[in-house]
Amino acid sequence: MTDLREKSVAPVVPEKVGRKRRIPPAVAILLGAALILILTYTLPPFRNYQLATVGAYFTVTAGLTVLTGLNGQLSLGHGALMATGAYTFALTQNRWLSMPLSVLAAIVVTTLAGVVIGLAAARLRGPYLAGLTLAVAVVVPSVTSTFDTTFNSDMGLSIALDPPPGTIPMERWQAWLCWAGALVTAFLLATLTRGRFGRDIRAVRDDETAARLAGVHVARTQVLAFVVSAACAGLAGALFAVLAQSVSPGAFPLTLSLFLVMAIVIGGLGRLVGALLGALLLVLLPALAQTAGERSGSQHLEGNLALVIFGVVLVVVMLAAPGGLASIRFTLRRK
Amino acid sequence: MTGAGALLEVDGLTAGYGAAPVLHDVRLSVPSGAIIAVLGANGAGKTTLLRTLSGLLRAARGSVVFDGEDLRGVKVEHLVRRGIAHVPEGRGVVTELTVDENLRLGGLWRRDRLDAARALDEVYDLFPALAQRRASAGHQLSGGERQMLALGRALIGRPRLLLLDEPSLGLAPRITAQIMALLRDLRERTGLTVLLVEQNVRSALSIADEGVVLSLGRVVTRNNAAELRDDADLRHAYLGF
Amino acid sequence: MDRFVYLTFDGLSRGAVYAAFALALVLIWRAARIVNFAQGAMAVAAVYVAYSVTDATGSYWLGFVAAIVFGLLLGVAVEKTVMRFVDHSSPLNGVVVALGLVLIVQGVLGILFGNEYRPIETPFRRDAFEVGGIALLSRYDVFVFAAVGAVVVALTLLFTRTAVGLRMRAAAFAPDVSRLLGVPVGGMLTLGWALAAAVGSLAGMLVVPTELGLHPTAMDVVFVSAFTAAVVGGLDSPIGAVTGGLVVGLLLSYVSGYLGATVAPMAVLFLLVAVLLGRPGGLFSHSKARLA
């Protein structure tokens, strides 16, 4: 290449500045749990269901934030990883009827899938990684047709869930389950990214060569970041299975993976709060678009309007923030 | 030295990357038909000066007037039509293209196809080494051949002003000498004006009429070449020999 | 043996389409260093235009021309209004913006046309000629070969024989140097996007009738196959894209024919993984692999 543009030198802002003001994770998580508890007793069932969905989305966007925002890897395959978790949950649950076991199985199996993809991903950059994970997102649902005796093709599987304990309504129970998963995930991620691992993945994102010279094992760090985010996706998949009480390939289209990317980009990369905001948008925007669609009386508008809004927001955010992803990350850190 | 007869007139030029300027209030005038050497240590702002002159870098303040026209509003793409050729540092050969393609690229903007073809032949006459390697890709050339190619490509536009960035970089002294001789020869034959940025002070002053010394983005002195050569204090202070 | 021959021709016909689509990806990658993840969605939009025009006029060929022209214009619009403003400091930015475009295009198509599969007609019959009792290829396959062949030849001539082609290549490889030599780099970029989008539209026109039908997401799987083709050939190499397209087409055809159609997407995924891990620069690239 004979491009003459000189590399722009990004000013270095010490990370400590922002960190002092943060609330300790444990406190934030407890506050969050209390808030959820109050909400589940005050909201009507449908709102509880939406609240539960936010929790399930937050579980996966939190993991993606670590991967893309902190580590700089873009995955379009997390919808497929969620499908992996959901199907594992469904198959385990229908066989042994034990939710803890099924959730554990979903996480373990998806983590293993994450190891495989992560190993490949650590050797790839930018568009190549995006393309590979896109292929995963597009191809994985077709697996359900290949092994249709296990996965029942496009029809999917219904799940035999244990009824909620006592007289707790289903929606409240779902909200508790989803938010338990989400908050535990957020706590673990917050703790993890504050330690050595967090420093390493940031270092790898900012400058691989410098990180390597500083003794960071780049490939291992990247695989680890992918595996952590895959585990989150697995749990989220299980939570979605709990929510829908069924699984089918149609629930995990490519659009889901794109929505997840959108959520973390708009929410602000690299911050768990951003992931939460993104998860909230993922539930609220389609609901608003749905209402708008119903009002207009056009069947075509439903669902599709949400796509357009998401797309426009994504493009506008990317163009309006002059440094793109990097600057979003940057201004947030500076606050 | 400023005043009538200057082909390029630079005044109060301040420019840089991001918030911190690299060039401060640079004033420079290049008379028509002169060879002016811009000298200075690494990081003095020499390359930045050329990039700002050709518009690759936007100036924060100041004016660049070429042949009576302010260049600030002129797009980089239109510069070559005004008669300005900028041979960037690192030679700027498009390494993926062949020698012939690189040279033709230099003449594509010209309406006078006939003269562009004639200029191409002249460049091949001027650099027989290039004529032998017409079909070779840029990345297969030696450093000297690349410099000849970049220079030849600039000449195909029949420029009035040549902005030349570090032509001696990485070249053997013999080849550097050839290129310097060629520049002097071109000036004498065609009246070409040259603004030559060089770290290789001896080579540059061997052909330049005048030298301008930059230090930390400011013009610290300008004088005729012979006096600069003999000014030991200046050499020690700014030029490092 | 008969089956093998048939599958080979079928694979080459599919491969020709992937080749054209991969070529479109390579065009933009070379010009702008962006993998246009919106290529599939843009192509579907063009096919919907063709569908509407054909529906209104009754002429397949009017629709065909409309699709190509629409593709050109869409390429120009996307480059001028969106892609031009993408910040290139991180290679992820272009990818994310393209994904945003995918959502927009698919959403708009869904709103305008609905989300059901629409059957779309072919200008030529798709039943295969038989030579000596062996089914070889259909009239439609011949049309596909001719169309893709014409595009490849036209692009080759454009890039190697014309001044515009030389400008486009120079602008892609060395934008600053090109500008100094008077090349309107921005215009070349727009032209690159327009050409690529038109070629992508052609590929869409050719492939959609052979798949499930017209749907906003009809090209998702095709995109993956074409991306794989482009990676197999090396994102920098037009010849590689064509070869890669044929390789992927043959692979898909053999795998579908001998192992079942549902296995085919996975075969593509395995090929993609194998090439990315084995030779990330592509099988035909002579330069060092570009990772970013």
TrEMBL record, chain A:
Descriptive protein name: Branched-chain amino acid transport system permease protein
Transmembrane residue ranges: 26-43, 49-67, 97-121, 128-147, 173-192, 223-244, 250-269, 276-293, 305-328
UniProt keyword annotations, A-Z: Cell membrane, Membrane, Transmembrane, Transmembrane helix
CDD domains in the cross-refs: TM_PBP1_LivM_like
Species name: Actinoplanes palleronii
Principal localisation: membrane
Keyword NADP: no
Recorded coiled-coil stretches: none
Entry's localization field: Cell membrane
Topology of this chain in the membrane: Multi-pass membrane protein
InterPro entries from the UniProt entry: ABC_transp_permease, LivM-like
From TrEMBL, chain B:
Keywords (A to Z) from UniProt: Amino-acid transport, ATP-binding, Nucleotide-binding, Transport
Keyword Acetylation carried by entry: no
Classification via SMART domains: AAA
The family this protein is said to belong to: Belongs to the ABC transporter superfamily.
Domain of life: Bacteria
Gene (UniProt): livF_2
Residue span(s) of domain ABC transporter: 8-241
Organism: Actinoplanes palleronii
GO MF, any single term: ATP binding
Gene3D superfamilies noted in UniProt: P-loop containing nucleotide triphosphate hydrolases
Name of the protein: ABC transporter ATP-binding protein
Automatic annotation (TrEMBL), chain C:
Domain of life: Bacteria
Keywords: Amino-acid transport, Cell membrane, Membrane, Transmembrane, Transmembrane helix, Transport
Annotated compartments: Cell membrane
Membrane association type: Multi-pass membrane protein
Pfam families (UniProt xref): BPD_transp_2
Segments passing through the bilayer: 12-29, 34-53, 59-78, 90-113, 142-159, 180-208, 263-284
Family from the record: Belongs to the binding-protein-dependent transport system permease family. LivHM subfamily.
Designated name of the protein: Branched-chain amino acid ABC transporter permease
Source organism per UniProt: Actinoplanes palleronii
